[in-house]
Write a structure and sequence with these properties.
The protein folds into two domains: about 375 residues, no CATH class; about 45 residues, no CATH class. It starts with 13 loop residues before the first helix and ends in an 8-residue tail after the last helix. β7 and β8 form a beta hairpin. It has about 450 residues and is mainly beta. The N terminus is likely disordered. InterPro entries: BFA1-like_DUF3598, Calycin. Keywords: Signal. This is DUF3598 domain-containing protein.
């Protein structure tokens, strides 16, 4: 048995702490992409500040509303599931669909996964002429059990963190929806022990990232249960060919997004949740540098694992989750760019979606009889959730990358101190010839000339 210090984790709302300086606005009602007959989401408001639902029943109704508006809709989410290891290398790819099918009155949703085992491509760019699809039932959700693993915030959703019973991995899934597209990433952390400690000889000392699976999904029509050799029934994942003729407002997964496009002025709304504060809506006029984590792909410290992927996707998570420390799992997505002049997209502004979940694990269970004895771990918990829905409103002006870096390191205002620091940091060494030409020697009088004539080494004094 292993002894540990007796302590308990404090659950705090990280999202609200970050946004305490932002102006508060009315909670935004999510746009309905489905045709379900459910009223718009509304939060209780006190002094213009949205507050948490007052009862567990109201909270469950709110979550069910968001879930059936953004994710459990008429159709299936088809994409290519790409798995990455700890080094960021691709280990596996699978074409599959996520089916979240509500019943007629939207009182329950059947969740299943449809794995494409084999297929033959037809002349259609998005269809398979013959397919073999394996359907795997997962669960059936309603208002009473959805909140056991799911938490929604506007267009964002987190599933977990939860322990997988067979493998013992901790799974945390983040999702963002925009139009008929969705990005979903699943982080899986496995138990690890310190160097020199025999694995299994004591409780795990941390949870290290084992695998990250990313899926860029498109909403497709529902397919029948038996799709073997049914021509044109499976449209499959999004393709570059169909995106070439996609209408304005459609997410584009097959496009390069240069790093500088992330650095802009973004404004919009934010939805935050914490176990103590509940759901809140915020109006964001501009994101400050400290909160612009989407512009720092490597994260804010060496403990962050990250990948930047084509199509404007950025993922970040803790390399190792340890007890007593919350870890941030993040997903940022730019589904649209600025519209090109002279095209049908002229006047369209770039979009940025972000979702951030704080997870905590390895909280020890202390014996009631002996405060110095640990008898197990509590299940992992969700500490906070935040989803931002932003639009580009302009370019950053009067601020270089060096200046913004200094601000992120702790300069709250760009004053004379930070200005001198930037000047010192960005100053370049002038050419040697230029330095020589600008230096001036003192004039030589007759006495100095005589000294140099007597001993030429006296010229070194000039």
């Amino acid at each position: 048995m292993t002894t540990v210090h007796s302590y308990r984790l404090l659950l705090a709302s990280l999202a609200v702490a970050v946004l305490h300086h932002l102006p508060v606005g009315n909670a935004f009602a999510p746009v309905s992409f489905s045709q379900q007959p459910i009223a718009s989401t509304r939060l209780h408001s006190t002094n213009q500040s949205p507050d948490a639902p007052k009862t567990p029943e109201e909270d469950a109704a709110l979550q069910w509303d968001l879930f059936t508006r953004y994710h459990a809709v008429n159709g299936e989410w088809w994409g290519t599931w790409t798995s990455y290891d700890y080094m960021g290398d691709v280990t596996d790819t699978t074409v599959a669909g996520v089916s979240l099918q509500p019943n007629k009155d939207y009182s329950s949703v059947a969740h299943s996964q449809r794995i494409l085992a084999s297929s033959t491509q037809s002349d259609c760019n998005t269809c398979f002429s013959s397919s073999e699809v394996r359907t795997m039932p997962i669960a059936t959700y309603d208002e009473t059990n959805l909140g056991k693993r799911h938490r929604c915030a506007a267009a964002g959703m987190v599933v977990g963190p939860s322990l997988l019973p067979k493998s013992g991995l901790m799974s945390t899934e983040l999702s963002l929806r925009h139009g008929d597209g969705r990005v979903r990433v699943t982080f899986q952390h496995a138990p690890v022990w310190e160097r020199g400690v025999e694995p299994g000889s004591c409780p795990p000392q941390g949870l290290k990232l084992f695998r990250a699976t990313v899926s860029k999904e498109k909403l497709r029509p529902c397919t029948p249960d038996d799709v073997s050799d049914i021509e044109g029934q499976i449209q499959g994942p999004p393709t570059a060919e169909e995106e070439r003729s996609a209408p304005a407002g459609t997410p584009l997964f097959f496009r390069p997004v240069p790093p500088f496009k992330w650095h802009a002025k973004w404004a919009g709304t934010s939805w935050t949740w914490g176990p103590q504060t509940g759901d809140r809506g915020w109006a964001i006029e501009e994101i400050d540098e400290a909160d612009s984590w989407h512009g720092r792909p490597m994260g804010d410290s060496s403990s962050v694992w990250s990948l930047r992927l084509p199509g404007g996707v950025l993922i970040q998570c803790p390399r190792v989750v340890v007890g007593g420390v919350s870890g941030l799992c993040r997903l940022a997505w730019m589904p649209e760019d600025d519209g090109e002049e002279g095209t049908i997209t002229d006047g369209n502004n770039a979009k940025l979606l972000r979702v951030e979940a704080s997870v905590m694990a390895l909280e020890p269970i202390i014996s009631e009889d002996d405060e110095d004895m640990m008898v197990g771990f509590y299940p992992p918990t969700l500490g906070s959730l935040r989803c931002d829905m932003l639009e580009k409103v302009g370019e950053l002006e009067g601020s270089t990358l060096e200046e913004r870096e200094l601000k992120a390191e702790g300069f709250s205002e760009y004053d004379e101190v930070s200005e001198s620091a930037v000047t010192e940091k960005t100053e370049t060494i002038k050419p040697m010839a230029e330095n020589v030409s600008q230096s001036k020697s003192p004039p030589m009088d007759d006495k100095m000339k005589e000294k140099i004539k007597a001993d030429p080494r006296n010229a070194l004094d000039l």
